[in-house]
User: Which sequence fits this backbone?
């Protein structure tokens, strides 16, 4: 247990702590690199984090919420509130450069319009969409004719 | 969820009715199509239909959530604690999932109608709904792409696939337009800028689009809506059965959370 410092953590401290929380469905990148943190407010009442759901019905949202409460609660010993908002839509443009790299290395093509998807293994453009729907709401299934490997691509929403 | 909140009157007349019809539509089609999980014709389709259904149930959750906040009630209570006659989904969705052609036809008709409705709500003045609609449209694009390609595949086939689609369209046709059943207090919603155009106008736009698509595949036009005033009431036996299914856990263990 850490003693709460008199001045409390800065927004930057909170964001740094959030950057250590992996995305539950794509643990190769953090929730910060995924771009789902809309706002961080540090006030006398505690810390409030506003999340942008990637998909409206994303089942990982509850897991993210409890991971945030647990991590920030441990680090800062303050009341933590996590809200969700659709004030701005989460779009796949919100994924950071680090996040895009991490995805590619994990064999998942970063979000792009279906005709612009490239194979994450060999970078070939000779790919075909097998199905718009994959193992999670945010991913589609593709096949690369170049290296003959199936792969997943994040949907461009 | 919002159990202890004081009930407040809806700020805009008719908003609660609009949210309820949209939420019930998404909930009923999402739950009904989720029955394909494990038994769809192809493995990829099993995944796709499950994912589509999961999207729709997520949309329903968000819409029931807005309604619950607006009326000071609980989203789960709205979703699960009503009698079948109190649901306000379109009669189109009372038809069970049937065979694969029926599922594709029902969803094609619903997705295209829903897309037309969402367009008329996207620039609305009530921010919580307009913001959510913007997000829904981004997801629905994938639904339209997927269901559109299945529809074309069945319509363009020769023999049994096309025959089954024709049967499904004949059954669903008179109920297809019920997504656009006029809302109570519709003029107030238009006056307040929540809804851009009357449902009757939206129905006309949607029919123009479907007519063009149907002509490409030499399909007969959809007939006018049967009993249009009661397009979101009088749910039949198929829905009574579905209602029994989706309320089973709630009734079996009242107050449980999961």
Assistant:
């Amino acid at each position: 247990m850490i003693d709460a410092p008199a001045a409390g953590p800065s927004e930057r401290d909170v964001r740094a702590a959030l950057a250590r929380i992996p995305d539950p469905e794509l643990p190769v990148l953090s929730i910060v690199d995924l771009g789902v943190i809309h706002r961080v407010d540090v006030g006398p009442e505690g810390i409030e984090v506003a999340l942008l759901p990637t998909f409206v019905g994303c089942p990982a949202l509850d897991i993210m919420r409890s991971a945030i409460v647990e991590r920030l609660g441990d680090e800062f010993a303050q009341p933590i509130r996590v809200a969700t908002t659709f004030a701005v839509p989460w779009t796949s443009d919100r994924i950071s450069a680090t996040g895009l790299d991490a995805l590619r290395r994990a064999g998942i093509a970063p979000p792009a319009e279906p005709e612009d998807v490239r194979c994450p293994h060999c970078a070939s453009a000779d790919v075909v969409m097998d199905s718009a729907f994959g193992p999670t709401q945010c991913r589609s299934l593709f096949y690369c004719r170049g290296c003959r490997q199936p792969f997943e691509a994040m949907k461009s929403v | 969820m919002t159990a202890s909140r004081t009930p407040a009157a809806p700020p805009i007349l008719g908003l609660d009715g609009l949210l309820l019809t949209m939420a019930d539509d998404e909930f009923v089609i999402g739950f009904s199509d989720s029955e394909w999980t494990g038994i769809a014709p192809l493995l990829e389709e099993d995944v796709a239909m499950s994912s589509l259904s999961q999207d729709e149930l997520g949309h329903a959750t968000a819409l029931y959530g807005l309604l619950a906040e607006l009326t000071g009630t609980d989203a789960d209570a709205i979703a699960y604690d009503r009698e079948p006659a109190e649901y306000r989904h379109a009669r189109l969705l009372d038809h069970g999932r049937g065979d694969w052609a029926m599922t594709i036809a029902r969803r094609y008709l619903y997705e295209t109608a829903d897309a037309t409705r969402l367009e008329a709500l996207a620039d609305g003045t009530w921010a919580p709904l307009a913001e959510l609609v913007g997000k829904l449209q981004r997801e629905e694009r994938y639904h339209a792409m997927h269901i559109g390609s299945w529809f074309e595949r069945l319509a363009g086939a020769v023999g049994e696939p096309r025959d089954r689609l024709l049967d499904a369209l004949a059954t669903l046709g008179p109920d297809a337009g019920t997504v656009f059943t006029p809302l109570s207090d519709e003029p107030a919603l238009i006056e307040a800028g929540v809804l851009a155009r009357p449902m009757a106008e939206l129905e006309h736009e949607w029919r123009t689009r479907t007519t063009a698509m149907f002509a490409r595949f030499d399909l007969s036009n959809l007939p006018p809506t049967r009993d249009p005033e009661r397009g979101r009431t009088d749910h039949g036996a198929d829905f009574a059965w579905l209602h029994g299914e989706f309320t089973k856990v709630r009734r079996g263990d009242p107050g449980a959370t999961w």
